[in-house]
Amino acid sequence: MSVLFLASSTYTNWKGFYVNAILESEVAQLPHRILEAENAIALRAKELLQESEVNIEEELSSNNAMYFLCILRGMTDYDFLSAAEYAKAA
Fold this sequence. Notes:
Blueprint: H1 8-11, H2 14-23, H3 30-50, H4 56-89
């Protein structure tokens, strides 16, 4: 799996990547969408650390988003494994 690096002007809009990930309906695209969102959030968090102002609301929002992306990733991993096991049994 390749790691996606996003430009500065892109990752400040991490919420768009997050929404795209949680609303993705194609199972095959979901891991890619999750990775995009995780990278955008991580890069934005790095940027927030370098800013002089503390933006606690965005920090909390991004932490919550990462938490739910982790849950979503776990659910998709489980679904992929379940589908593979089901296919073997058929």
